[in-house]
Amino acid sequence: MTELDVVIPTLNAGQRLARTLASLSDGDTPVSVVVCDGGSRDDSVAIARAAGAHVVATPAGRGRQLAAGAAAGTRPWLLFLHADTVLATGWRAAVVAFIRQPSSSTRAGYFRLRFDSRARAARRMERLVAWRCRSFGLPYGDQGLLISRRLYDQLGGFRPLPLMEDVDLVRRIGCTNLVALDADVVTSAERYERDGWLARPMRNLACLALYFAGLPPPLLRRLYG
Fold it and tell me: Which of 7, 10, 67, 219 has the most CB atoms lying inside 10 A of its own CB?
């Protein structure tokens, strides 16, 4: 897929990164991948290089890392993806279909979210995420973000925020310009299983409310943990 740069921020993500990178091939030719590493002390960088990714070293901070990764690429479309998010079969067809639509030059796409858990609570959370996206135009970074480089640059790209960098960008894109792609991503449920399927989203919601109320992202980052 010659039109696309996939940008993946990493920080000690070696445990899951190889699976994410493998999902990008989808039985077809590899895509251009930029891994923007924030100072990993594990084997994240080695895994990325072994998979053929271009590695960019940056200071830690997801917003700053994503901006550096986008700047390192050259292709006309960008797909931002978390290191613990695996693209499901069929993602290429969904991306190509979106890119081929003329109206997509002013829009961005995101994937349907699935968790790698069999818990019933995971299915409820997936439905809640889908509702949040439909109702408020708020897909999070673990759903991926597909956007033309031209639109990304026009909007000013990712800002160097330690938290809420994804919310900040999708708000500038606008809820009416966000489109659900016809494909899934499967993301890690580890944090939900560790913190609780109720407690974790309630903490996320509290942080989101504080962000909208104007609390500075660095302080939010300390509260988020």
Answer: 10
